[in-house]
Amino acid sequence: MPEISPKLIHTLSLMMIFTSFAAVEARNLRHATTAYLFQALLICGLLASYALQNPSLFYWAATALVTKAVLVPWFLWRATAGAEQETKPIIGFGVSAVLAIALLLVMYWFTHAHASLFINLKGPNVPLAETNLAVAFTVFALGLYGILTRRDAVKTVIGLCLLENGVHLSLVSLAPTIRETALAGIATEVVVTVYLLLYIIAGIREKHGTTDTFRLSELHW
Description:
mainly alpha
């Protein structure tokens, strides 16, 4: 059975942090969508790399390629047509970027340093699992940060997608050789939810001319 490449997986995994930061902090929604697209390709690469040990993961990688790297970016791209600039967020760009960097550094350090609290693995792949788990928690935290600090509904959807990617990275990192991992990953794809949310957002924008989640609470249907 072919062996996985720890260096390749490390590289792909760590790059997910940078794409998460870009997706959250980019003020142009299409730039944020592009950052998410790159992250989707990264996680597909990770799944394909782990599939060398667990061929069933190739099915998940193929599904993720269609849902994460094609359908979701396409939905996001359509949703931002004619309204590419993000609604002014709660926190200004400079402060937000600093807070996001601080958050990712703290989350990565804490999770990596205390990985034994979350996993109980043995063998040569433990360092790889620790790194991936730290990245997964960091991506999840950045997604949650984006949801909580952004007023634009499209950015909220992108934050939701980052949450999903963080969960999926932790799943494949903790149980890469189990056949059921692929089934669990495919079953938890949120592409339908994303489509429905963006469909609703498009209707709200058409009717009320805004996707500002703060203002939506003031609207009367």
